[in-house]
Specification:
Two copies of one chain form a homodimer. The first copy, chain A, is mainly alpha-helical and 204 residues long. The first copy, chain A, has nine helices and no strands. In chain A, α5 runs antiparallel to α7, α5 crosses α9 and α7 packs across α8. Chain A starts with 16 loop residues before the first helix and ends in a 6-residue tail after the last helix. Chain B binds a DNA duplex (30 and 30 nucleotides) through α1 and α3.
Chain lengths: 204, 204
DNA sequence: TCGTATCGCTACGATACCGTATCGTATTGG
DNA sequence: CCAATACGATACGGTATCGTAGCGATACGA
């Protein structure tokens, strides 16, 4: 009930250096395996082998493989820098270019399909996916909100629609048609999204 | 070497009714399992249990689990009806609405993420994915080609770009933001794609 | 320095899967 | 009707996986 009294309480806040080493090593290796083989390519035995941390130790820190996976996925949030160029067009272009770059070189685009697949059935993963999606949409909402204050777009403009109009075509190229996302494509997609935002006929 | 001579040759063309029954049952069950659990949710033992076809028989028809999976995936091609309303806008709207409907109720959208995931690493699945993608893009190319003949769009318009601009936002909603794809969204997305097609500044 | 928390190692048990082997039975087509 | 073919049932060997148990070694922190 009360804070503490007798036992020093392992103190979740300040971990012993040893447990931190173990935990970090395991999480890093897990993420690495995820990058290589998706969620399905991660096994506890392999994590143990590659990280040098004993399997028993892994199970001392996480109750199950799923828990470990969810924990490791928390590292996925990219925390993108939200551009602030002073204009809606500048912000959107900068952010779109950033996403396009990430899709080409970052590691999370390799993992995401397996998360989407798992989310299709596993509700736990679905929750994780929703969190990732929210973080992904956040920059758009900031950018649109600023544009509203500047009077560049009507108040009814919806950030998520812009996200769909910009990221949608990018994702399509990355995972479906597998075409490269060149600069021209980024520009024209953003151009289209801007028109949608400023159009009289509201989006949705 | 020559066509045939002595043995009646099992005659791949005209299968014995028994083998057809077995093959069909197995393929149907495989597809069913894929719909429920994605590619990863398919095991030969489970197919055998659920279809009533002995595992030995399954291995008499397919050399491996992968071969069976690829065979079953051939059923995925949706062969969508290509609309011909007489105008580019009508065709695109009709086709977009069809895709939107499929995304909501058909079974392949449940399976596709697992294919995408597998294609990220397995070259065999990657080939299958490319075929599916080609079939998916085909209606767009027919529609755009007709519009070119009518002079509705410049000759440099690219069908795959239109596919990205239309299907991209749909896919985004289906698998990322998980919002429903209502009729308004379909209309506005198609509107945007039309603007892109007719814009002076070329797409890509 | 010394007790305790944490660790590594090895070995389990249980399950699920792939693919093969054997052998007796049922269907098919001539 | 009869031989060839396909089939079902069962069992197997091999591997990979998840999680747990026991036990001795080690690093930390007071």
């Amino acid at each position: 009930m009360s804070k503490s009294r007798k036992k020093p309480e392992p103190n979740v806040e300040k971990e012993s250096p040893r447990v931190k080493r173990s935990r970090d090593a395991v999480l890093a290796t897990t993420f690495e395996l995820m990058s290589e083989g998706g969620i399905g390519g991660v096994s506890v035995d392999e994590i143990s082998r590659r990280s040098g941390v004993a399997k028993t130790t892994i199970y001392r820190h996480w109750p199950s493989r799923s828990a470990l996976l969810l924990d490791a996925c928390a590292k996925l949030r990219p925390q993108p820098p939200i551009p602030d160029t002073g204009s809606l067009e500048g912000d959107l272009l900068a952010h779109a270019a950033f996403i396009a770059r990430q899709l080409k070189s970052a590691r999370w685009p390799t993992i995401l399909p397996s998360i989407i697949d798992a989310a299709e059935r596993d509700p736990e993963i679905a929750k994780l996916h929703a969190q990732l999606q929210a973080g992904f949409a956040y920059p758009y909402s900031v950018i649109i909100e600023r544009a509203k204050k500047r009077g560049e777009v009507p108040a009814r403009a919806r950030a998520l629609d812009t996200a769909a109009l910009v990221s949608g075509p990018f994702f399509f190229r990355r995972w479906y048609s597998r075409e490269p996302i060149d600069e021209m494509f980024v520009k024209s997609v953003v151009e289209r999204a801007l028109e949608a935002l400023k159009a009289r006929s509201t989006l949705t």
